[in-house]
What does this fold into?
Amino acid sequence: MTTFDRALDLVITHLDGRKRLLREETAASREALEQLTRLPREIVKAGAPATSVSTQSKQSRLNVLRETILATERDPRLANVRQNLVFGVGNPDADLMFVGEAPGAEEDIQGEPFVGPAGQLLTKMIVAMGISRQDVYIANIVKFRPGMPQGQSGNRKPTVDEMAASIPWLKEQIETIQPKVLVALGGTALEGLSGKPQSIMKARGSWMSYNGIPLMPTFHPSYLLRNQSNTEKRKVWEDLLKVMEKLGLPISEKQRGYFLR
Ligand code: URA
It folds into this structure.
């Protein structure tokens, strides 16, 4: 191959990349336009914020990341995870982002994080905060369900290698969304975000920081499913009250008193 041919190849590869990005941008803008035309006229006239440009560009950046994960050859460190990508769900412009461990069986089937029993509890907790699942963003440290040895059912904790291979994607999600507060659900999420294993029992309830973003570690909802005592539920709820305070969300007396006997 001549130098000219090699240069030509490089230019073609570069242009292919630009074409893919442009397609993503165009698809996202078309979607934004459709959403805008669906808005009642009077809302637009009153100047209520439509889906903002920044939300659209965040969504398209997330779309590109999703496509990149799907298109890139699987990292050998992820040889023992399932095929289905469970990318993340929610508002790309969310102030609050929850980070869990890895998808379970139900998440693997539906392609959405936290839709199984633990997810249903997480959704109830979000609603108890006076917001909805659509207001927040939910993702996991590992984006594919960790595989179980043949003939075994259930879930397993992701390995250190699986976490290391996946964390750059989570980092990109966080950098794109720029949430005001992060919540680490359980020890694995805390380990992934802080970069070192540490006890969730000791860490929960105290503010930490992830690249300058306030990070609240709390128990994983599956822990609460196993330990149904009001004392443990109250601990998580107190952590979430701190999150609400940090975000300036209104807190009623009723909300303050949840799980107190
Ligand atoms: N547990 C997690 O940590 N993440 C999910 O998506 C589901 C269960």
Notes: Residues 100-104, 107, 113-114, 116, 118-119, 140 surround uracil (CB under 6 Å). The chain has a mean pLDDT of 88.
